[in-house]
Design goal:
alpha+beta; Alpha-D-Glucose-1,6-Bisphosphate, Chain A, domain 4; 9-stranded antiparallel β-sheet; about 160 residues
């Protein structure tokens, strides 16, 4: 299992950074290699990405979500991965911290992981997220529900 940890400071309030991150279908705007993300329901998402020139699809379950604090997931089918994104208020805005574990498939991905290309890609994706969220006055939407142990315990308003 390969692990990536990366963080970035964005000059927006926590609620704005968090709300934008809940818009999973917008991820292709800032995540390189992500072709499509479809929100299936409040806690399930289907991903399509191109990694190392190969197309991968997987389903993920959001296992923890607390507004303005954390979103955590794990794959349920397809590419094996899990992780969490934490949102921390800081003087200049918000620190967004990404931790991700995944199983590299094939020689290209294993070599890229060993050379740290995956960490570089996540860093570049976070740079693009920073540009996106700081350039907008408001997020493209939000979902402010709470998920615990994979179950929606408090529905949120989507807007």
């Amino acid at each position: 299992m390969a692990t990536v940890e990366k963080s970035i400071d964005v000059a927006v309030p926590v609620s704005v950074a968090y709300d934008q991150w809940t818009q999973f279908e917008q991820f292709p705007q800032f995540m390189s290699g992500v072709v499509d993300v479809r929100q299936l329901d409040d806690n399930h998402v289907h991903w399509t990405a191109e990694v190392g020139g190969e197309r991968h699809e997987w389903d993920a379950e959001i296992v923890e979500q607390k507004p303005d604090r954390v979103i955590a997931w794990r794959s349920t089918r397809g590419l094996d991965n899990s992780g969490r994104v934490e949102f921390e208020p800081i003087d200049s805005g918000t620190r967004v911290k990404v931790e991700m574990d995944y199983e590299p498939e094939g020689l290209k991905e294993k070599t890229g992981s060993l050379l740290g290309f995956d960490t570089g890609q996540v860093g570049d994706d976070l740079d693009r997220f920073k540009e996106l969220v700081e350039s907008r006055e408001v997020p493209t939407g939000a979902w402010r529900g709470t998920i615990e142990s994979g179950d929606v315990v408090e529905g949120g308003t989507t807007y």
